[in-house]
């Protein structure tokens, strides 16, 4: 497993993974995406040892006694954890599960038990219900979506990053033919959103300062600009992936009357918003977690579009060995790659 510790250090270590409980499965990880949230969590944990990773894809190797939806040998994407019982889950919005924070960010099961030990000592695990920077991960069967024969490195980011961008377009913004979507920040989430909108016949405008990312977006059919201060056309819908307050406020000014902006990036907690303009022009400002998606429904839909050639997600991925985590992060931060995906050693 890839263990994170103090001063941002990471190392591959031997670890002990719990056996699956009745509703859990053990998944042999074939590929796992690197998400910005992993880096934020690593920084927040400080010196606390942790196994992170929350975009795992792999083969089910063991199932708990109560699991009847998956079988040994199934290839699955592991997405975020949810309880399946609260009002939000039952309404089809598991990203807003009443127990989302405890299930995804506590580092343990709900009963407080650890899932991973290193040298006999418990470490922070069960991250987003998985901790998939590893050769194997333990997850609730509810979080696992069968994906068939799709390449695991392409499927893995559907656990979070690609799911978030695509879901924001399909489940929250809902643009259609004749609309124009502005995507602010063409990282993995933003580019997945742009590709999804293009697959819907929507005109897409991207604002992104990194030239390589602009070129990639343009190659897929989007109109790419360096910043929001360029001469952008008016837009009906917008997605902010940056979390930067000044960009959120500026994006609202670019919307046509009755336009809608969804925000998916984590940044400062407050922003200066012109509420008078929001009201007079009938604008909407929406928050969005995990694309407001039910993974069991959206992941198969996105894979169908991929297989039809309408959603070329494989063009966003660059693979690395699991032990090359730090190089993958450095390449992503430098804009040399869009979505790093780690491959555990065999």
Secondary-structure map with pairings?
Layout: E1 2-4, E2 10-12, E3 16-17, E4 24-33, H1 36-45, E5 56-63, E6 75-78, H2 87-90, H3 100-105, E7 116-118, E8 121-122, E9 136-140, E10 144-146, H4 152-155, H5 161-173, E11 180-184, H6 188-199, E12 203-207, H7 211-220, E13 223-225, E14 235-240, H8 245-254, E15 255-263, H9 275-280, E16 284-287, H10 295-307, E17 317-321, H11 325-333, E18 339-343
Parallel strand pairs: 11-12, 11-14, 12-13, 14-15, 15-16, 17-18
Antiparallel strand pairs: 1-2, 3-7, 4-5, 4-9, 4-18, 5-6, 6-10, 7-8
H/E element string?
EEEEHEEHHEEEEHHEHEHEEHEHEHEHE
Q: End-to-end distance, in Å?
A: 13 Å
Rg measurement, Å:
20 Å
Q: Strand-residue fraction?
A: 15-25%
Please describe the biggest sheet, giving its number of strands, its sense, and whether it closes into a barrel: 7 strands, mixed
Count of distinct structural domains: 2
Mean pLDDT: 96
The CATH class designation of the largest domain is: Alpha Beta
| General shape | globular
Can you tell me about this structure?
- It is a single chain.
- α5 crosses α6.
- The strands form four sheets. Strands 4, 5, 6, 9, 10, 17 and 18 form a seven-stranded mixed sheet that branches.
- The two termini are 13 Å apart.
- The chain has two domains: 190 residues, Medium-chain alcohol dehydrogenases, catalytic domain (Quinone Oxidoreductase, Chain A, domain 1); 125 residues, NAD(P)-binding Rossmann-like Domain (Rossmann fold, 3-Layer(aba) Sandwich).
- It has 346 residues and is an alpha/beta fold.
- β15, α9 and β16 form a beta-alpha-beta unit.
